[in-house]
């Protein structure tokens, strides 16, 4: 089957965008893995599928698949690219979009100069909703990994995140303990793992070992989760510029129960057809 796609990225977190409205697609985990494979396919961190909405007040439904083929609940960088994609493909002329995801509704606002702002909804902090194994909700949690005990934050942005504070993000053990935390038994649906260096009350640096992918150049939900954890610990103000290896995102959050807003770029690289 020939399938049209657009290759896009948000700060180097790269995506294959598929229009499931103008073309009938039958995807499987194996097909997703082949599309995402950087040798036998197109290559990407996530495959994003645009579908007609099921909710009455949604403009579109958008589904997210990690490179390992697993479907997940949310993708921040992907949401910004999604907004640009549906406008470029003339699927809408709107600049304010309501988008249905497995994690709930997102509000997207297309701004000038390739920027998109996303209302990511309120973070979820109750352990059983993350899900994370803990007796009760706490500001941070001890986590045993390879006979070491790490202090983590646990936050869901629709998808689960563990966040560790580090002194130097360049030397953080992203690839040595990232995989062990990603598959830690206290995270029954696995977890994205963020390593956060706080430089001031409004500036921080972050690297993320993403569930189902590995380390990416940027992670939008990871930036939101990391800012929420730092804010809960009283270490940052209500707006923080999070610097990831691929570039910076502006995250705004004013406290529990409030939505997190993420603003950043979305770029289209090329269009093509793949035979799957
Ligand atoms: N790996 C994530 C999905 C993609 C998130 C990331 N690419 C973003 O921009 O938020 C997960 O398994 O929950």
Explain what this protein looks like in three dimensions.
The protein has 276 residues and is an alpha+beta fold. 16% of the residues lie in helices and 41% in strands. The protein is built from four helices and 18 strands. The protein has an 18-stranded mixed beta sheet that branches. The model has no long low-confidence stretch (mean pLDDT 97). The site of 2,6-diaminopimelic acid has 20 residues, from strand 4, helix 2 and helix 4. It catalyses: (2S,6S)-2,6-diaminopimelate = meso-2,6-diaminopimelate. Its EC number is 5.1.1.7.
List keywords for this structure.
276 residues; single chain; 16% helix; binds 2,6-diaminopimelic acid; isomerase; 18-stranded mixed β-sheet
Which cofactor or ligand species appear? Answer: 2,6-diaminopimelic acid
> What is the SS-derived class?
alpha+beta
Based on CA atoms alone, the radius of gyration comes out at 18 Å
- Relative helix content: 10-25%
Give the overall shape, derived from the CA principal axes.
Answer: globular
What is the succession of H and E elements?
Answer: EEHEEEHEEEEEEHEEEHEEEE
Please provide the count of β strands.
18
Overall pLDDT: 97
The portion of residues forming beta strands comes to 35-45%
